[in-house]
Design brief:
Structural class: alpha/beta
Strand content: 5-15%
């Protein structure tokens, strides 16, 4: 297995590295692309396929879709029905109501009739099961809670239900099975998939071991996922923010915006970043509520339009992809402001909102 993890605070750099990896694969080679969302994976594949002139056998799924697809045979064999979080909350609410009537809530009796108790217990049960903690590990710590958890697990078994932690466990087992799913064992791209629990990590680890090649993109601020991939999987970590401007796939320049992206929410830095001279690229303002915020944003857009600055060019300070999507002709058109109007809309490329110039 050859696996690499790339990190960056900028989405454009991570996507650029993912595009380079995909462009290096054969157009007819089967590839598995797993995104945090299905739309994100689809958008990346469409962009690369348009540049390559087409691609065949490139499978796109979200992380949860892949888990359900891999676990489906085991679910069918065991006659299990996967349930959603709403159904899980309904089961816990029924258990709380029954235990309260029987006087079995113990320390939770004073809050047994509050609407927030079933939701809170559902969250605790999900966290414990996703952490893969054994049931007997909490007997000495929270015996009253263990009574509710035991009743919940009995309810799942009696009704042949499977919640998300159980689906993850079955999917992890199915990866190492002889008759595993056909998507397992393909070159795999993990596109900003957050791995926040032990159960999710066990599935991702089994997926990485089975893949002949893997690239994982991770936002720098996602310390939990990065720590698991670097320290426990032993993957090579490539920090795209440390590359020079000439070799940066995102093509971003060192500017105030770039520095802000790198350091604002980066909790992984060992030392404080050097201060830079304040400029006019960033304006910080506060507005009470979304309605007033929209008014303030529109006011600033109109000020830029009066100065004949295309909004695409102005937004380039924080969104460089908009400038790349605009052609020279569209940019020229956006400079022609009709008489009596503060601005008008110009198309800035497919699947991108029109830019107000």
């Amino acid at each position: 297995m050859t696996a690499t993890t790339v990190i960056s605070v900028a989405n454009c750099r991570r996507l650029g590295r993912a595009r380079v990896w995909l462009e290096g694969r054969n157009r007819s080679e089967e590839i598995l692309v797993v995104g945090a969302t299905l739309d994100g994976a689809n958008e990346l594949i469409r962009t690369v396929a348009k540049q390559k002139g087409g691609a065949f056998g490139w499978h796109r799924l979200s992380f949860s879709q892949l888990v359900f697809a891999v676990a489906a045979p085991k679910l069918a064999t065991g006659g299990l029905v996967p349930i959603s979080r709403v159904a899980t909350q309904a089961i816990v609410a029924g258990l709380v109501h029954r235990l309260r009537a029987e006087g079995g809530l113990s320390r939770y009796e004073p809050v047994g009739d509050t609407p927030g108790l079933p939701h809170a217990i559902t969250d605790v049960i999900a966290e414990l099961r996703l952490a893969k903690l054994r049931s007997d590990a909490l007997h000495g710590v929270a015996p009253d809670l263990m009574r509710i958890i035991g009743a919940y697990e009995d309810e799942l078994a009696a009704r042949d239900f499977s919640d998300w932690p159980l689906v993850l466990a079955l999917g992890t087992e199915a990866i190492s099975a002889p008759d595993r799913h056909r998507l397992i064992g393909l070159p795999t791209l993990l596109l900003d998939v957050p791995i926040s629990t032990e159960s999710e990590f066990a599935f991702a680890k089994a997926l990485a071991v089975a893949a002949p090649a893997m690239l994982a993109t991770i936002p720098t601020a996602d310390a939990a996922t990065l720590g698991r991939f670097r320290n426990r999987l032993g993957l090579n970590v490539e920090d795209l923010d440390q590359l020079s401007v000439a070799t940066d796939p995102g093509g971003a320049s060192i500017s105030v915006i770039t520095r802000l992206q790198r350091h604002l929410f980066n909790e992984n830095e060992d030392k404080k970043s050097p201060e830079a001279k304040a400029g006019s690229e960033i304006e910080v303002f506060s507005a009470p509520g979304e309605g007033r915020e929209c008014v303030e944003i529109a006011r600033r857009v109109l000020l830029l339009a009066r100065d004949a600055i295309p909004s695409c060019r102005a937004r380039n300070r924080s969104d460089r992809s908009c400038r790349a999507a605009c052609t020279h002709r569209e940019w020229q058109q956006s400079r022609r402001v009709p008489s009596g109007q503060a601005g008008f809309f110009a198309d800035c490329g497919p699947r991108r909102r029109s830019c107000l110039a």
